[in-house]
Design goal:
This protein has six helices and 18 strands. With 299 residues, it is an alpha+beta fold. This is Inorganic polyphosphate kinase.
């Protein structure tokens, strides 16, 4: 007998909850903000709206389904199952934070604060949740397959990201490494920089775009569903031992970028999740390319 679908509601702590965690009580948090010319009322209102949205979405889950809730900080410890329908209740960035832990499960994005969020990935309102959950499990249900980027280290560690993957030093030091194309006999170029960024079309409105604009790149930015990645080296430093001839490029299906660490330590993380990073040391290598897994975003 097959298991009934499980709706997994993903959310994150609100600003109000973070204030309470820091200051202990509503009154102390209100005093802290008022002493700086700010009011807690707007923060509390957004908290109430988010909590109401979670209640509304939870009540829309069919009675025959199972359900679970997970907070953003616990995503790396949560076990998603093949029959799950993932409902992200929050901001666009929360969809990206969730995507790296999935393996093809449909995702529904619910916007808890229309007007403040761009709504690129959280495209729906709470009132649409019931019909979207049914559509997510229906044959032929509509979903966009958004391209993801992956990093695979030589010790089999693997990292997925929806927007971008960053490779660089853990602090503000200089990263030293060798960068080249994957496969063949390409020895790569020795480089010293503040890191390398590899991004997708979904990430083309964020960090990747800022680098693209900074370089005045003539390479077209990919769309979210394009099987294409762009990569940029940040602040490459020329010296007698390091070069700057390979500082930008694109990757298509089957193509990869290989980085070999030539410093004590480098970190690799995706979509700003620094707490869930791969750590590489001298001599280790990592391959960057298009992931076989994509994000199934229910439309």
């Amino acid at each position: 007998m097959s298991l009934a679908p499980r709706a997994v509601l993903v959310h994150r702590r609100t600003e109000y909850e973070e204030l309470l965690a820091r200051h202990g009580t509503h009154g102390q948090a209100a005093f802290f903000l008022s002493s700086r010319g700010r009011s807690i009322d707007e923060v509390a209102r957004r908290h109430d709206d988010t909590r109401q949205a979670l209640r509304d979405v939870a009540s829309a889950v069919p009675l025959t389904w199972r359900s679970s809730t997970v907070e953003r900080a616990d995503l790396d410890r949560f076990l998603f199952a093949p029959e799950d329908v993932v409902v992200v209740v929050g901001q666009d960035g929360l969809v990206a934070n969730t995507a790296k832990y999935l393996s093809g499960q449909p995702v529904v994005g619910i916007d808890t604060d229309p007007g403040r969020n761009p709504g690129v990935l959280v495209r729906h309102r709470c009132g649409d949740a019931a019909s979207l959950l049914r559509a997510a499990t229906a044959a032929g249900g509509r979903a966009e397959e958004l391209t993801m980027v992956e990093a695979v280290a030589d010790d089999t560690q693997r990292l997925l990201a929806l927007n971008e993957i960053y490779l660089g030093p853990p602090g503000h030091q200089t990263a030293r490494y060798r960068l080249g194309s994957d496969g063949g006999t390409d020895p790569g170029e020795a480089q010293a920089s503040s890191g390398v960024l590899v991004g997708t079309g979904t990430g083309a409105t964020g960090w990747l775009r800022s680098l693209w604009l900074e370089r005045g790149s003539t390479v077209p930015m990919p769309a979210p569903r394009d099987p294409r990645l762009l990569w940029f080296v940040r602040e490459a430093w020329p010296s007698p031992a390091t070069g700057t001839s390979r500082v930008a490029g694109e990757l298509g299906p089957g193509q990869g970028l290989r980085l070999t660490v030539e410093s004590d330590r480098m970190v690799v993380f995706g979509d700003g999740m620094e707490t869930d990073a791969l750590e590489l040391t001298w001599g280790q290598s990592v391959r960057l390319g298009i992931a076989a897994t994509s994000l199934r975003l229910v439309t």
